[in-house]
C-alpha cells in the first residue's frame, strides 16, 4: 500500500479519455434513447442519485457528471430510480467503469423525516415536491440494487449521506450506533467531502485498467481492508488526546515540555494537543487506530472520544489516516482532500451546464431548483465549526474561492441565456454569505492548526477578516447592465460582519430585500458554548450597525433571527429566558425546529454520550445536559412559540412546575395569559401540517429547517422560499 499523495494534480490536467470525441451532451442522458442520439453504445460511468436531475452547478450530481464529461467520459444519470426492483438500474446498460451512488443533496433520513421522526409531506428535490421518491438510507439501497444489476461493476459511494456516515456513527432514527455506510452498502470505495479530486483520479485509474481494490492512496476516500499493512505505524487514539492551551498554536506535534513552555500563565479555553508518537519523516505512514465499531456501539464515552479524534484529524495540512475495525474488517479512511485552487473552482463552475431541469420532467416544478435557479456560488467551505452543522465535516474549514471574473461571467450568462430571468440575482454566496476570500494569514499556521473553529470563542487573531474583496464583487456585480438587484440569500456570519462595518453598510443599503435572516441559535451561554456560537452581544452589535445603515439609506429593514430548540446544553430555564427575550424584542417564531442529531456532528456525540467532545473525553469529564424525550422537546418548541394559543396549556403547566407563576397573565412582562380561547389547545402534537418548502438550513447543510422569528413590529412580509437549497451539501 502506498502512502497518500500530498501534492495534488490539477483536476483538469489529466489526459482526456478517448470518448471525448463524442463532445458535450446537451444533458447527461437518462435513457437509452438519449444515448442513441449521442451515438453512445454504452456509458463509461453511471451516476445514481436520489434527487431529480437538474443540470445546474448547485446540484452535486450535475457538477460531478459535467466534470467527468470534461475528462472525456460518457456519463449517464439514473435519477430517483424505483428501488423495488433491479430493472431501473439496468436502464442504461452496464457501465464500463463504475457506478457512482449518492442519496442526493441531502441525507435521505433528514430528507424524509422531521426532527420528531415523522414522515415529511414533500420533497423539494422531486418534481412537484412529491414525497416517497427515495428510500430510507438511499445509499445502501441503491448500492445493493446496482450490485444486483451488474455484480462485477465497481461501486463508488459519495455525497452528504456517505460523507457523514463514513465511520461508525450514531443514527438518530434508530437510536443506535450504526456501522460505516461503506460496510452496509458493500461498496468498493467511499469518497467524502467535495470529492472532485478523488472521483476524477478514480475514473482515470479504472480507465487505465487498474483494479478497484488497488486504489488505496487517494485522499478523501475510505475503503475496506483486512488488516493494517506491515510497514505502517499504528497510533492508539486513546493515548494521544492531550488537553493544552489555546494560544499560541505553535506546533501541534510538540513534546509535552515544549507545550508547557508555550502555555499561557493563566487557564482558559482548552484545545487538543497531541504527543509526538512518530518522527515527522514517518507521519505519512502512520495511522490512528480508533476504537472499534463494537466498542463505540456499546460505550457512549468512547463514541464521544472517537468523534473528537475524527474532528481533530480534519485539517488537510496535518490530518492522518484513521482506521476502525468492524468485525473482521477494517474501515480505512485516508486524510481529507486538498482544497481546490481558484483556477480549478473557476473551471468547475464554468462547465457547460444547461442550468435547467432535464426535459423529461416537462412542466413539473422542482422546488429546490426554483429556489436557486438565478443564484451563483462564489465559495465553498466554512470555518465556523458550529457543532450541529454538517458543512465543516463535508466541505472543510478552508474556504475555496472563485475569481471575481469567473463569477461575473456566470452572472452575465444568467442574464443573457437563463429562461425567465427578470434581472434579479437571488444570491451570491455559499455555505455562508461572507467568508469569500477569508483565510488564515499564515499558510504555516493554517496547515498546523487543529482548532475546530476560527471564530469561537472569538475571532482568531490569525484570521484575515478583510471583506474588501467581497465588497468589490458586490459593487461590480450590481453595476452590470441588465442587473436590477443582487440579493444575498446565504446566511450572514454576523460575528465576522461586525469586523467590517463597511461590509454591513454595503449589505444593508444594497443587498437586502427588507428582511435578513441571521442565526443567533440561542442566547444562553449554556447552549451557545455547546454550539460554538457567539454571545448575544455580537448580535446586538450587528443589529446596531444594520439598523444604522438601513436608516441612512432611508430603508425600513428588519433582522429575522432563528433559533434551535432542545440543543445539547439547553435547560428549560435557557428556553424560558429565550422566550422572554423574544417577547421583549417583539419576535414571533413562525417555524420552530428542535435539534436533530445528524450523523457525525459534534453535537450528536453530545446527544448520544452526554459528554462534551470539545474537550478531552474521559469517564469523569464534563457532562452535558441533553434535552431528550417527547415532553421536554415539546416544551422547548412551545417556548419558542409562546404566542401560539395551542401551546398555552403546556406552558402554563411548565411555568407552575418551574415556580414561575408570575409569568402567567396578560401583563407585558408575562408570557402566557390565564384564559384559553375556545377551540385551541386541543390539537395533538404534530397536527400542524409541515411547511411546503425546506428551509435555508436544510438545503445548505442537510439539517432540518431552523425556526424563524418574525418581528411583529414590522409590516407583514410576503412568504418566499428560502434561497440556495443545494450548495453546501453537495452530493459528491
Concise structural overview:
The chain has 26 helices and 24 strands.
Written account of the structure:
- Helix content is 30%, strand content 13%.
- The protein has a ten-stranded mixed sheet with strand order 2-1-3-4-7-8-14-13-12-9, with helices on both faces.
- Strand 1 (45-49), helix 2 (60-70) and strand 2 form a beta-alpha-beta unit.
- Helix 22 runs parallel beside helix 24.
- The longest helix has 17 residues, at 536-552.
- The chain is globular, with a radius of gyration of 25 Å.
- 51% of the residues are buried.
Number of domains: 3
CATH architecture of the largest domain: Alpha-Beta Horseshoe
Widest sheet, order of strands: 2-1-3-4-7-8-14-13-12-9
Mean pLDDT: 89
Percent of sequence in beta strands: 5-15%
Helix content: 25-40%
CATH topology value of the largest domain: pyruvate-formate lyase- activating enzyme
Number of strands: 24
Class from helix and strand fractions: alpha/beta
Q: Per the principal axes of the C-alpha atoms, what is the gross shape?
A: globular
Count helical runs.
26
Ranges with pLDDT <50 over ≥5 residues? Answer: 242-275, 684-732
Q: What's the alpha carbon Rg, rounded to whole Å?
A: 25 Å
For the record, what CATH class of the largest domain applies? Alpha Beta
Distance between the termini: 25 Å
Main beta-sheet annotation? 10 strands, mixed
According to CATH, the homologous superfamily of the largest domain is: tm_1862 like domain
Amino acid at each position: 500500500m502506498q502512502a497518500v499523495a500530498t501534492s495534488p494534480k490539477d483536476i483538469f490536467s489529466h489526459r482526456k479519455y478517448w470518448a471525448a470525441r463524442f463532445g458535450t451532451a446537451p444533458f447527461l442522458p437518462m435513457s437509452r434513447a438519449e444515448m442513441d442520439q449521442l451515438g453512445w453504445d454504452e456509458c463509461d460511468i453511471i451516476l445514481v442519485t436520489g434527487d431529480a436531475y437538474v443540470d445546474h452547478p448547485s446540484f452535486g450530481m450535475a457538477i460531478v457528471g459535467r466534470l467527468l464529461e470534461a475528462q472525456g467520459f460518457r456519463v449517464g444519470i439514473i435519477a430517483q430510480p424505483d428501488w423495488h426492483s433491479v430493472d431501473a438500474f439496468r436502464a442504461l446498460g452496464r457501465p464500463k467503469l463504475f457506478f457512482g451512488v449518492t442519496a442526493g443533496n441531502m441525507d435521505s433520513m433528514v430528507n424524509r423525516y422531521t426532527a420528531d421522526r415523522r414522515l415529511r409531506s414533500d420533497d423539494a428535490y422531486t418534481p412537484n415536491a412529491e414525497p416517497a421518491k427515495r428510500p430510507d438510507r438511499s445509499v445502501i439501497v441503491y448500492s445493493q440494487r446496482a450490485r444486483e444489476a451488474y455484480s462485477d461493476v465497481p461501486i463508488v459511494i459519495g455525497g452528504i449521506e456517505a460523507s457523514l456516515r463514513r465511520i461508525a456513527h450514531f443514527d438518530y432514527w434508530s437510536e443506535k450506533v450504526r456501522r460505516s455506510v461503506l460496510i452496509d452498502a458493500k461498496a468498493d470505495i467511499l469518497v467524502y467531502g467535495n470529492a472532485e479530486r478523488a472521483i476524477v483520479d478514480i475514473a482515470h485509474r479504472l480507465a487505465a485498467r487498474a483494479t478497484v481494490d488497488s486504489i488505496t492512496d487517494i485522499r478523501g476516500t475510505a475503503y475496506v481492508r483486512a488488516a493494517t499493512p506491515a510497514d505502517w505505524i499504528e497510533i492508539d487514539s486513546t493515548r494521544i488526546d492531550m488537553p493544552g492551551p489555546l494560544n499560541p498554536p505553535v506546533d501541534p506535534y510538540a513534546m509535552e515540555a515544549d507545550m508547557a513552555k508555550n502555555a499561557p500563565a493563566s487557564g482558559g479555553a482548552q484545545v487538543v494537543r497531541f504527543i509526538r508518537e512518530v518522527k515527522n519523516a514517518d507521519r505519512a505512514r502512520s495511522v490512528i487506530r480508533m476504537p472499534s465499531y463494537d466498542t463505540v456501539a456499546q460505550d457512549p464515552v468512547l463514541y464521544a472520544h472517537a468523534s473528537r479524534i475524527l474532528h481533530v484529524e480534519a485539517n488537510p495540512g496535518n490530518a492522518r489516516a484513521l482506521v476502525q475495525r468492524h468485525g473482521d474488517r477494517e474501515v480505512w479512511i485516508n486524510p481529507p482532500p486538498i482544497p481546490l485552487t481558484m483556477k480549478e473552482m473557476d473551471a468547475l463552475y464554468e462547465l457547460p451546464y444547461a442550468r435547467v431541469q432535464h426535459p423529461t420532467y416537462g412542466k413539473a416544478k422542482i422546488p429546490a431548483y426554483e429556489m436557486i435557479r438565478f443564484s451563483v456560488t462564489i465559495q465553498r467551505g466554512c470555518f465556523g465549526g458550529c457543532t450541529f452543522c454538517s458543512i465543516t465535516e463535508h466541505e472543510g474549514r478552508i474556504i475555496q474561492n472563485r475569481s471575481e471574473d469567473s463569477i461575473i461571467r456566470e452572472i452575465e450568462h444568467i442574464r443573457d441565456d437563463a429562461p425567465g430571468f427578470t434581472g434579479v440575482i437571488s444570491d451570491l454566496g455559499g455555505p455562508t454569505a461572507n467568508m469569500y476570500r477569508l483565510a488564515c494569514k499564515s499558510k504555516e499556521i493554517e496547515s498546523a492548526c487543529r482548532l475546530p473553529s476560527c471564530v469561537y470563542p472569538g475571532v482568531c487573531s490569525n484570521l484575515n477578516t478583510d471583506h474588501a474583496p467581497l465588497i468589490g464583487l458586490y459593487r461590480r456585480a450590481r453595476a452590470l447592465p441588465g442587473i436590477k438587484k443582487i440579493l444575498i440569500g446565504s446566511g450572514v456570519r454576523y460575528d465576522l460582519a461586525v469586523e467590517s462595518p463597511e461590509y454591513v453598510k454595503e449589505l444593508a443599503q444594497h443587498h437586502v430585500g427588507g428582511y435578513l435572516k441571521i442565526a443567533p441559535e440561542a442566547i444562553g451561554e449554556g447552549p451557545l458554548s455547546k454550539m460554538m456560537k457567539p454571545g448575544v452581544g455580537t448580535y446586538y452589535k450587528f443589529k446596531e450597525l444594520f439598523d444604522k445603515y438601513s436608516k441612512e439609506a432611508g430603508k425600513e429593514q428588519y433582522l429575522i433571527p432563528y433559533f434551535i430548540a432542545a440543543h445539547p446544553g439547553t435547560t428549560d430555564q435557557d428556553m424560558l429566558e429565550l422566550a422572554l427575550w423574544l417577547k421583549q424584542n417583539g419576535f414571533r417564531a413562525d417555524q420552530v425546529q428542535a435539534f436533530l442529531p445528524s450523523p457525525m456532528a459534534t453535537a450528536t456525540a453530545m446527544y448520544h454520550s452526554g459528554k462534551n467532545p470539545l474537550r478531552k473525553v474521559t469517564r469523569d469529564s464534563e457532562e452535558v445536559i441533553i434535552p431528550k424525550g417527547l415532553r421536554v422537546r415539546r416544551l422547548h418548541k412551545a417556548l419558542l412559540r409562546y404566542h401560539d394559543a395551542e401551546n398555552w396549556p403546556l406552558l402554563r403547566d411548565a411555568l407552575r412546575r418551574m415556580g414561575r407563576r408570575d409569568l402567567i397573565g396578560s401583563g407585558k412582562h408575562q408570557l402566557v395569559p390565564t384564559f384559553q380561547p375556545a377551540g385551541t389547545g386541543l390539537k395533538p402534537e404534530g397536527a400542524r401540517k409541515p411547511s411546503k418548502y425546506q428551509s435555508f438550513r436544510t438545503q445548505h447543510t442537510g439539517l432540518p429547517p431552523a425556526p424563524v422569528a418574525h418581528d411583529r413590529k414590522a409590516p407583514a412580509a410576503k412568504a418566499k422560499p428560502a434561497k440556495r437549497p443545494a450548495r453546501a451539501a453537495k452530493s459528491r
